[in-house]
Amino acid sequence: MKIVQLSEKVASTIAAGEVVERPVSVVKELIENSIDAKASQILIRIEGGGKDLVEVQDNGIGIPADELGLAVARYTTSKLRSVEDLSNIGTLGFRGEALASIGAVSKLEIISQARDADSGRKLKVAGGRTGEIQTVGSAPGTVVRVHDLFYNTPARRKYLKTDNTEKRWISRLISRNALAYPHIRFELESAGKRSFISPGTGDGFEALSAVFGPKVATRMIALVDAPNAPFKVSGFVSAPDLQRSNRNELNLFVNRRWIRDAQLSAAVMQAYHGLLMVGRFPIVALNLSLPPDSVDVNVHPAKAEVRFADSNHVFTVLQRFVRATLLGQAPVPTLNGAQTISPGEGMARPFAPLFPMEQARGLQPASQPAFPGQSVPLLRAVGQVGASFLVAEGPDGLYLIDQHAAHERVLYEALLSQIEDGQVVRQDLLEATKVELSTGEADILRENLTVLAEIGFDIEEFGGDAFIIQSVPALVVDHAPEAVLKAAVEEIEEDESPLEKEKEKRLAARVCKRAAIKAGQILSLEEQRRLIRDLEACKVPRHCPHGRPTMIHLSVASLERQFGRR
Ligand code: ADP
Ligand code: MG
Q: What is the CB < 6 Å shell around ligand 1?
């Protein structure tokens, strides 16, 4: 084919893809326009996960009547004039392409009334074609309705996920905005039902509470201004005992713009060093207030990444500040219960070293297995310590076994092998149990009935957001079916993995964690023996499915060293 110049229409449809990838990108652009317009209330309505309709209504400054036509044209903006302005951006938008891009791939309608005007104007754009401006009676502020996203680019529409998944992304985006802008009231309505609301009082704790629920909010630590800090870091970090299994809730904002930044995430994780278990993540909502000229926001199509003039400096300041906050306030768990580490103490240690002498001498303390998959030798149960750990003797010394982690592993391998054979042993519940879920949880459950059935949960819809549990995997039958199911739903919610096989495994792991013997449960010697036998038979006996060790080994040699016999 010869090289030809693309028509304006084709070129703008392609360019739109940079900005508008899916319904959540539309919501993002529209919310950002409302925030830039100084709105204090933003109402978002969606239908069909945003594929059929995204409507964003605000009470911001509105668009003057004679500028509405320009607002929907490409590269038209009220937020920037020159290239120099690019290095000093104080608004979320600045490229002047969002409304035009959205209008190129949907049927868009915008109604706006400037604050001092006495009537509004309405304009439609469909597939990039702009209609006539009409005068309408409206309220001050702006409403944008986006119907039938990608109706004219079916290839794109095909790549959208289910309504529930698209909706979940939208909810997450709105939650983040609610965290970054506690003085704005955000409300999300999906298919006519309210699914989120933030109060917009300006109180950060109330915003946290709207997003994570009051229980989590009360366990978050507010960052307190450091008087001589080179820049301001504000927001909240979770106490170390409040953990998530993924990094989804590491919410970082720069000048209130949500960003993804591996280096800043790493700074936060370093601040938690030694306070969290391996593979666990905190919940944070942090805003860095930086002079606009020290951060370039124009490096990413969706502006989800930024570039710092001095990223090492930002990293260090953030890491130290969060660490100081944590050490100053957070109770740190140790082997013998909670203990507070005072501010200024160097590195926190989550678990007191078992053998401090040995460690001081730089010798190998309680040895971890060289290979995670390594099997364990036959062990003789000796007894139980603290109703949580089993003591066992092996051919090469002493083994301390975490009973909960060990049982988790045993249940997990058993359930997994049943799943792999396609014959999970189910137990019908004597009394079918009714579970009431939140709307969000119900959506998730409805979408995952099949995968749950594969791991042994037969669940029926009861109507509304209620479900009936008919049967559960026999392995977990001793446990409150409702709690186990809720744990599974939570797992799906946190799970980002698109792979169905992975999902099954993660679900199985979560269910087994719920069902496993807890710390604090006294076991008879017979039960101890049985658990140890089952663990020995596992393929990966030395770690629980979440990667934590099930046992600590103290070799005879290390005992001899401890006692000064060597
Ligand atoms: P940008 O936000 O990059 O300027 P957009 O295409 O998103 O580009 O919007 C174009 C212009 O339309 C904005 O610069 C602003 O002047 C106006 N505008 C868009 N949405 C709103 C709104 N909700 N309230 C007031 N003005 C708006
Ligand atoms: Mg914009």
A: 29, 33-34, 37, 58, 60-63, 71, 76-79, 93-100, 142
8 Å CB contact between 252 and 234? no
pLDDT at 366: 33
Residue 51 Cα to ligand 1 midpoint, Å, equals 22
- Tell me the C-alpha distance between 173 and 343, whole Å: 35
Distance between CA 395 and CA 388 in Å, rounded? 23
Which residue intervals of 91-162 are DSSP H helices?
A: 98-104, 154-158
User: What pLDDT does 370 receive?
Assistant: 32
Residues 93, 113: Cα–Cα separation, whole Å: 20
- pLDDT for 500: 65
Distance of alpha carbon 453 from alpha carbon 460, whole angstroms: 10
Pocket test for ligand 1, best of 28, 31, 34, 36 (most atoms within 8 A of CB): 36
pLDDT of residue 110: 98
CB 559 within 8 A of CB 393: no
Percent helix, percent strand, percent coil in the chain, to nearest 5 = 35, 25, 40
Tokens found for residue 552: 């600590």
Using 70 as the pLDDT threshold, list the residues of the chain that sit under it.
Answer: 329-374, 495-501
**Alpha-carbon 334 to chain mean position:** 27
| Residue 343, pLDDT score | 30
Q: What pLDDT is stored for residue 384 in this prediction?
A: 95
Number of H helices, E strands in the chain: 18, 25
Supply the DSSP symbol for 66. Answer: G
Question: Could you tell me the CA-to-CA distances from 29 to 33, 96, 288 in Å, in that order?
Answer: 6, 11, 22
Q: What DSSP string describes 332-401?
A: EEETTEEEEPPTT-SS--SS--S-HHHHHTT---SBPPSSTT------EEEEEETTTEEEEEETTEEEEE
pLDDT of residue 339: 30
Q: Are 392 and 378 in contact (CB under 8 A)?
A: no
Distance CA 14, CA 254 (A): 29
Beta bridge partners of 253: 258, 287
CA–chain centroid gap for 428, Å, is 34
Query: Could you give the 3-state DSSP secondary structure of residue 234?
Result: strand
Say how many Å lie between the CA of residue 501 and the centre of ligand 1: 44
Q: Which structure tokens are listed for 565? A: 């016999």
Which letter does DSSP use for residue 152 in this model?
Answer: T
